[in-house]
Amino acid sequence: MTRRTWSEELKHHRELLRPVEPAQESSVSARLIKRMMTLGITVFLILLLLIYLVPGYDLLSILEGKTTSTVVDNYHFTLPDGRTIAFARDVFAQLQQLYFDNQEHEFSVCLLGSHQDTIYRITGLVHPRTYDQDVFHVRADICGKETLIALHSHPYKKCIFSEQDITYYRSFATINPEGLIGVMCEPDRFGFYP
Length: 194
Fold this sequence. Notes:
Number of strands: 10
Number of helices: 5
Mean pLDDT: 84
Largest sheet: 8 strands, mixed
CATH architecture of the domain at 71-193: 3-Layer(aba) Sandwich
Strand order of the largest sheet: 1-10-9-8-4-5-3-2
Order of helices and strands: HHHEEEHEEEEEHEE
Helix content: 25-40%
Shape: elongated
Structural class: alpha+beta
Distance between the termini: 77 Å
CATH superfamily of the domain at 71-193: Cytidine Deaminase, domain 2
Radius of gyration: 32 Å
Low-confidence stretches: none
């Protein structure tokens, strides 16, 4: 290792001890943009935290359910893929009464009627044998091949299909490929899969 001379050592120390040059000041517009971005990100993160902590997952589930379900208007509605479901008045009244009477647990029904092109006319319903039911699930016999729509209820405003619902749909589709599976999540709101 070579030794430095006194003058080289002094030069090295001066370099280490030289004053730090202040950073160039950014323009007023750059500072304003930086503050606005910081404020925007802060507000967004606080909003996410509040959505998660205050109402929890339920709010997001309800919002998602609203976007994937349809409200009955004048006893019929049209699905996003163009299929139309038309209820007979008495069948729709029975469904609403079932929904109100079974708030403490889910129920299952098989909706019957006729199907022509993209129109499903619902003229009757039958109750399959039910084995187990609570507020979050129902276990019943699978609907028969004459069923147009295998329908069950969900708790209020919970319109998202569960994995169990999708498994049921796959089984029902082997019995009736033209049939639908639906959930009733409000007295006049339904969601259908797929």
